Structure formats: structure tokens, C-alpha cells
Amino acid sequence: MWIFSIGHDGPALANLWAVTPTDHEHVVTRLPRAILHPRKRILRRLAGVPVLLLVAIVLGGCRLPTFGAFRGVTKQGQTEFTLWSWLAMLGLAVAVIVWGLIFWSIIRYRRRDDKIPHQFHENIPIEVIYTVIPILLVGVIFYATVISENRIDAIKAKPAEIINVTAYRWGWRFSYEDSSGISQNVLIQTAAQPKLLAQPATSSEYPQLVLPDNSTVRIVLQSADVIHGFYIPAFNFSRYAQPGVTNEFDFTPTITGVFRGQCAQYCGLYHSEMLFSVRVISKVDFSNWLSANRS
Amino acid sequence: MKVESYFLLFLSVFGGICAALYWFLSKETSGSIMLLATCFLGALPGGYYLWWSRRMTPRAEDDAEALPSSGAGTVGAFPGSSIWPFVIGMGALLVGLSLIFGLWSAVVGVSMGVFAVFGVISESRHGGISRH
Amino acid sequence: MALTIDRPVQAEHHEEEHGPSGLLKWLTSTDHKVIGKSYLITSFVFFLMAGVMAMVIRTQLSGPDNTVVSQHVYNELFTMHGSLMLYLFAGPFAFGGLANFIVPLQVGAPDMAFPRLNALSYWLYLSGGITMIAGFFTVGGAADFGWVAYAPLSDAVNSPGAGPDMWIVALALTGFSAIFTGVNIITTVFYLRAPGMTMFRVPIFTWNMVVTGILILIAFPVLTAAIIMLWADRHLGTHIYTVSGGGVPVLWQNLFWFFGHPEVYILALPYFGCVTEVIPAFSKKPLFGYRGMIFATISIAALSTAVWAHHMFTTGTVLLPFFSLMSYLIAIPTGIKFFNWIGTMWRGSIEFKTPMLFAVGFLVVFLLGGVTGIFLAAPPIDFATHDTYFVIAHFHEVLFGSAVFGGFAGLYYWYPKITGRMMRESLGKASFWLMFIGFWVTFLPQYLLGLRGMPRRIAEYSASTGWGGLNRISTFGAYLLFLSVAVMMINFYVSWRNPIPAPDNPWDAGTLEWGTTSPPPHHNFNSIPPIRSERPVWDFNHPEHTTFGLHSREHASEERRD
Q1: Do chains A and B touch (3 or more CB pairs under 8 A)?
Q2: Residue A58, φ and ψ in degrees, nearest 5
Q3: Which residues contact C422 (CB under 8 A, 6 or more apart)?
Q4: Contact yes or no, B with C (3+ CB pairs under 8 Å)
Q5: Which domains does chain A have, with CATH numbers?
Q6: What is the pLDDT of residues C381-431, one digit of tens each?
Q7: Among B41, B60, B71, C410, whose CB has the most other CB atoms within 10 angstroms?
């Protein structure tokens, strides 16, 4: 690595970087690989962290690490998960490198005597490097982000099913329509009354949103009063239900099962009780369920 | 005063560019207006400082080679102890609380404020030392 | 004999000999040092109150289905915890407390530019703070709509009562207090610097306070306008934020967050400044990349005005790519600052007194907070984590990291200068380690809880969620934090009862405030050294280890001619 040294600091750096200034001519020679300065060794090791992560992914059978997040039940949720996993790896790699530099400094440069250290205060090439590299990283991240968010927010022209979700203080109402918007007379609503603590409602009192597997359903989200958050953790997704605004988005579930849902935007006294669940079943079971639940 | 003006004008230019970009990309009114207001907030003092820096007599604090003696003389007027800030503060509190307790509170608060204005002016005329 | 009313003859008011004493002295003081100390103590009291609220919150959440407090009280608690910490502690401690005391000293001024305005700021702040706390004593209780008071939740229908109104009045009072302080700081730095102190020799703490002052002027008027409109909706029958009547609820969010995002940088930048003073002093080196720091700070401030809607990604009504890109861009100047802090420690001679411990603690904690902020700047990731404990962990890392770790670094650093006494090193170190360990134990589990789906602002959760274990660990960490603050209070008490007198410059630091007595005399300086760099006292004490001559073009060209 080439280091240019300008200004006062020539003589002191000369010992470390094999710089032999003649008058004020600063000549930089490359250090032989074998005699690598301790700092460079540490930096090389830290740079190995992201490499290690990549190796771990490959060895782990190409499964991206979750860092605790959900892999996503829907296609949209899985797109989010992929972005999360890569971004988390990148972020943690950066954090480990910078933590490494911090811990190296506080250990290696602990005060041992009363000598006043060399008073350098700038190094333009290094400053340029650590300005430019983050700009490049931001460009890459932004590109990946826009691709992901466009995929997640994309809505299909003709979804298999349209579900009107209405949030209110303090429950949910799900009303099913077919793909042309005609009501199918299926209505699910919260049966739990707002309760004080120590009187938790049973799960049968919370509404269950039933969705078909491997099809795209449109959610039309509205609020009857204040802002609520329609949040399904396993879907890696939430969206506000706001008065005066209708939010529409698609879910394409790929995994069957039962998943938690909860209001995520504080809406008053019984905000913590605004629960619901989501059940994903096969398409056949879904049409049976629809016919069975027509009121 | 050049550095000060450049700093403010930088914020102004940045606010203006963001306002224009944001408006054309989103057509959202409230954000665009707030960004434009930020642009004006930087432009007003920044522009004034830029204009004034070209006309003012050079100051000791802008002179890189100045010695402490260059700053000799009166630095400014620094009013000593004064009861009026406390009076104005309590008046403002009463005006604020009138939003909850009713108009009578605002009447008392505003009266305190008016009284304090006279007090502050009287004080300033006496060089900042309160005299009855 | 005509009846005349004689005018009472008052004794001449000789300030120097018979100035007011006791309570009257405090009520009438316009000295920035007295006002600064008042702010520090008052804001610290609010910090303690908000901290106790946090302990109750964490106790309620320590296990599933707890009934330590009811939902209503819980909602008041998290609202007031956030409001007190953000509006009454973090900001005023920095710009009212530390800046008020230190900025005039660092630029070599005898006082702030407008001393009476300064005093007014304090009284507005104190009355605003008391008004906010007084909400607890109203019939309906304190405000309980979160520190962000989203409409329509905060309107008269959904949040009736005097508590919310007192919250609004408190914000108006403290808002004007902040605006006046911002004006004072900017004017002081622009007009009252000592001879030779060009803007590029002003210490970074003061530079950060100037930038903070501008941000205050940009942000607080927007908040004041927003809450006045909220009050109008609540009491004057307007329909600004309500759909019936043609209003737009999301307007509240746009206005609030246009204030709210610069606000968090108003809270962070002063503490970045504290850390930027502490690290060079205890590394015995000048700040690495002084100009880079200034440009980075200004960039952060500028960008912070253009990112507000990243708090609104899940509304479905904002331009996602614009705000996402602007938010990512803030990482660049923040990264520059980090590398400059590291560059300052690099090849230095680091002494781990308490201020330095807290400064390094800030670096370690804020780093992860900043990185998780990058995650949240991606709208898809925000969809998955918005309003969950992931966000709570992120903002506590950045806010606690800056205001508490950074703020305590500044407090321990400047305590000798402010009070003339030294804090005890052993108690300081104990407090630091309790805080550092307590912090990670409290907030690391919360990242995981958020990723596993635990929303924020919930008073309780059921056992079937499986969140009990992580919450119990987090609560234990919170108790460690409480202990750490208790140890710090003991340190204050011991330093007061058993004082160790502080010398003028106990840390051998470089900026101007260390060139006067501890505490400083009435008009701050009896004499000022010549100023040739951002650390004039260091240059004066260590003439063989200066760096000036590299900034001044004449000196640089002289060198080259050697």
C-alpha cells in the first residue's frame, strides 16, 4: 500500500514507512511483504472477517444467516430477508473492523511513559479513502434497496383474492372479496373486549386472517379512527392503517402455518390487546373455508 | 465573517437543491415548503454576512496573526444581575397556562411582560445595573 | 402643610459590593456560568425522574402478563419517559448546561452575547419542565400518546383532558427556550471570539454547538407551529389534522418529523463535541482531521433536514428512495468522524481517566447504533422492524450512547472547571463499568426481541410469545444502569462533602477554558494567551509540541523555503 507523506511529519514517519526524505522530497518505498507493520497485520486480519462470513455462508449450504430475523413466509417477506441478511453481514463486518481499530488503539497506545507522542493531525490520502469507500458502499446498498422495495411494494393487476382490512380501537375486521371486488360475504372480526391486564383474552377471541398458499392476495388497509399498524412479524412486513388513506399491498404466501399478528402503531389504552393471527392453508382448503364461512 | 457566511450559505444551497429535487420527485407540499424555508433561513443571515464581510473593518478575531492586545478595549455590554428575565419567564408561563386555565392567566402574564419590557429598557439605559 | 407623597429613597445598587445574595442572586443572575450550572442540575433531575420511569417500565415488562402497573399508567410512563429524556434532559443538558458554561470560555468571551436572554431561556425551560411534570397531577393523568403525539390519537376526541394540553404548553415554553439559546450561542461564537481565534481555530465542541444552534432555529419553530395547530384542533374547532372537515392526519407526521429528525442531531452533535474534546486531551495529541470534522458536522446537519420521512416509511405515503438515499448518505460524514476519533487515539499516549472511559464507551456503543440505523434506512427492513424493539434498541444505542456516555464524558471532563473540585476516579470507573455492562445487557436482547416481532409501546405480552427470557435479561441490565447512576450520585456527594480542589488544568488539555482558574473568575479571563491553533493553552504550555504553522499559509511556505 502506498502512503504519501506531506508536511512536517516526514522524519517521524520515515522510520515506519521506509520514507527517506531528501530535502523536502518525499519518496515512498513499498515495504517488503514479510516485514509488515503490526498495524497492517491487524488490518489484514480484520479485513478477513467479511471473507470468513462469505466462507461460512458457502459452507452452511448457501443459507443466509438470519441474525434472529424471520426468513419470511411470503415472497415479499423473503425478498426483505435477503436484503436484511446481506446488509446485516455488511454492517457487522464494518462494525467489527471499526471496533477492531478502536480496541487496537486503546490497547496498543495506552500511556506507558510521560513522553508526548508525535503530534500529527492529518493524513489526506487516508482521509480521502475513508470518505470515498463509504460513498461507494452507499451506492451499492442503495441500488439493492430500491430493487427490493420495488419488488415488495409491487401489486398485481388481478390478485386471486382481495381482503379489506379495517383497523379500529381496539380490533380488526377482515372482509373478503373476489378478484373483481365483489364481496364474498365472509367477515371475520375481533371478538375480544378490551380488557385490563391479568384478564388476557383467549386466542379464540382474536380474529384469524386466512390466506391461500401460493397465490397473490391483495390487502386493502384502512382505519376507522386513529393510526394503527398492521404488523405480521413472520411476513417481515407492516403498514399503517390511517384515516383518510387506503394502503394496498400484496402477499404471496409460500409456507403454510399459523402466524402472529399485532397492532404495531400505538393507538391508545388497549393497544397491547390488538392481536390477530394469520393462517396460511392450501388453495383447495381455502376455497372450502370460504364457502363454509359465508354468512 | 467569510467562514460564517459560507457555512450558512452552504446550508441554504443544500436546502434549495433538496427542496427542488423533492418537489419534482414527489410533489409533496409540506416537505417542499419546509425545505424551501430552510433555504431561506440560511440565505438571510448568510447573504447578509457575505455582503457585510466585504465592507466591514477587519476584526481581531478574523486575523490569524492577532495578539491578545489587538482585542483591547470594550468587548461589549454584558448586563449584570437582572430580575426581568425571571419576570418575563413567569409571565410567559402564565400566558401558556392560560391555554388550560383560562384568559385571566394570560392577562396577568401579559401585564408582567409589559412591565418587564419597561424594566429592561430602563436597565439598558443605565448600562445594565438595575436602579430604582 | 400640603400633603406630598415622597418618593422612597433607595440605596444605590453597587453590584460589586452589595450584590443580591441567596435566592435573589439566583433569580437575577445573568452570568452564563450560573445559568449553565442551573441547567445542568435541573436537566439532571429530569434525567433521574425519567430514569425511574424507565425502571418501572422495565419491571412491568420483565415477564409475561405482569400487572405492576395498569395499561393507562404504563402509557403515561413511556410517554413521559421519552418526553422528559428528549425534551427536558438530553437537549437542555447539552445546549443549556454544557454549552452555556463552556462556549464563552472556549472562544475567550466574558459572557454570552445576550445575558438576559440567556436567563430568560432558563426560566422558560424550568417553567416548561414543571408544567410537563404537572400533567401527572391532573385528573386524567399526564399525556399518554407517546413522545411523538401522532394525530389523530392526540386530538380532543382520543386524548381528552388537561395532561396533553400541559404537554403542549410545556413544549411551547421549552421550544422558545431552545430557540433563544440557539440565537445566543451562534451570536457569541460569531461575534465574541478572542483575537486570533479564527473560525478554523474554534474548538470542535463550540463548532458543534454553532451547528446545533442553526439546527435548533430550523427545527423548533416547526414543532411550535405543529403543536399550536394541534392545540387549535383540540380546542378551537379547527380540522387541520382530522379527516372529517378536510384535514390531513399525516401532515402531523411530516411536520413533527421535520422537527424530530434534526432534533435527534441537536441531541447528538453537542455530545459528539464533548467526545471530540476528551479524546485529544487524554491521547495527548491534537484532533486528527480538524477540518474534516467540521465539514462532516455541517454535512450531517444539512442532511438531517432532508431525511425526516424515514420515520414514515410504513405510512405508504412517502417517496421511499429519496429519504432512503439521504439517510444512507449520513453514514458517510459519521464514518469520517469515527475515523478521525480513531486517528486521534492512533499512536497517542492514552490515559484512561473517567472522561476517557466514557468517551471510548460512546465510540463502542454509538458504532452499533449507527450501523443499525443504516439497516433501518432501508425501507424493506423498516417494514419488518418499524415500531418494534429493534428500533428501541437502535435509538437507545445512539441517544444513550451520545447523551449519556458522551454527556457523562463531558460532565466528568468539565466538572473540575465548573465546580473547582475533582470527582473520585475509583467511583467514576465503577460507575462507567456498571453503565457499560448494564447498557449492553439491557439493549442487545432488545434487538433480538424486535426481530422476533415484539412491538413497542405495549404494556404487556403473553407467555406464548416466548419473549419472557430476553425481557428478563434486559430488565436486569436496566437495574445495573440504575446502580451505575447511583454510584455517580455518590461520587457527586463525596466530591462535595470532601472536596479535592481542582487545579486550572487537571487534564493538561489544550482549549482556552483550561487557561483560567477552576472555577473561572467573574468575567472568565484575567489574561488570554496568543491564539495560533485550536488548542492555544497546549501551545502555551508545550511550545515544542505545537502544530500551528501548518494551518497558516505563511508558515507553511516558510518551511518549504528552509
Answers
A1: no
A2: -60, -45
A3: C415, C416, C495, C499, C500, C501, C502, C506
A4: yes
A5: 2-153 (no CATH), 161-292 (2.60.40.420)
A6: 999 999 999 999 999 999 999 999 999 999 999 999 999 999 999 999 999
A7: C410
Nearest to B4 among C123, C165, C199 (CB): C199
Q: Quick one: average pLDDT of B11-27?
A: 97
Q: Above 60 in pLDDT, residue A8?
A: no
Residue-range domain boundaries for chain C: 45-555
Q: Is B7 on the interface with C (CB under 8 A)?
A: yes
- For residue A270, report the phi and psi dihedrals to the nearest 5 degrees: -105, 30
Q: Which of B15, B83, B100 sits opposite C28 (nearest CB)?
A: B83
Binding-face residues of C in 503-532 toward B, CB within 8 A: 523, 527-532
For residue B60, list chain C residues with Cβ-Cβ distance below 8 A: 194-196
CB atoms within 10 A of CB B38: 27
**Which of A92, A143, A149 is the best mutation test for C, with the most CBs of C within 10 A?**
A149
**Strand ordering across the sheet containing A228-232:** A208-212, A275-281, A257-263, A228-232, A237-241
Q: Is C117 on the interface with B (CB under 8 A)?
A: yes
pLDDT tens-digit map of C109-127: 999 999 999 999 999 999 9
Spatial neighbors of C457 by CB under 8 A, at least 6 apart, are A266, A271, A272, C75, C78, C146, C387
Whether ipTM exceeds 0.85:
yes
Question: Is the Cβ of C307 closer than 8 Å to some Cβ of chain B?
Answer: no
Contact assignment for C150 to A135 by CB distance below 8 Å: no
Closest chain B C-alpha to C528 CA, distance in angstroms: 6
Helix (H, G, I), strand (E, B) or coil at A260: strand
Q: Which residues of chain C have pLDDT under 50?
A: 1-17, 550-562
Q: Please say if the pLDDT value at position A33 is more than 80.
A: no
pLDDT of residue A181: 83
Chain A, chain C: beta-carbon pairs less than 8 Å apart: 282
The x, y and z cell numbers of residue C178, run together, are: 431552545
d(CA C54, CA C77): 8
* Cα dihedral A76→A77→A79→A81 (10° resolution): 170
Q: Looking at beta carbons, which residues of chain A come within 8 Å of C288?
A: 120-123
* pLDDT tens per residue, range A223-256: 999 999 999 999 999 999 999 999 999 999 999 9
Confidence of residue A61 (pLDDT cuts 50, 70, 90): low
Q: Is C324 on the interface with A (CB under 8 A)?
A: yes
State the nearest Cα–Cα gap between C120 and chain B, in angstroms.
4
Its CATH class, for the domain covering C45-555, is mainly alpha
What pLDDT band is residue A204 in, cutting at 50, 70 and 90?
Answer: confident
Closest CA to A187 of A170, A169, A166: A166
- The C-alpha torsion from B12 through B15 and B21 to B27, rounded to 10°, is -120
Residue position matching grid coordinates 508536511 = A7
DSSP state of A223: E
- Whether chain B has a CB inside 8 Å of the CB on C235: the answer is yes
From chain C residues 43-72, the ones with a CB under 8 A of any chain A CB are 65-67, 70-72
Residue type, B69: S
pLDDT at B107 over 90: yes
Which candidate from C123, C172, C298 shows the least CB-CB separation from B89?
A: C123
Question: What's the pLDDT band for A48 if we cut at 50, 70, 90?
Answer: low
The sign one gets for the Cα dihedral C270, C272, C274, C276 is negative
Q: What pLDDT was estimated at residue B37?
A: 96
> Max CA-CA distance within chain B?
62
Q: Is the pLDDT of residue A286 over 90?
A: yes
Pairing status of strand A275-281 against strand A257-263: antiparallel
Q: Is pLDDT of A42 > 50?
A: yes
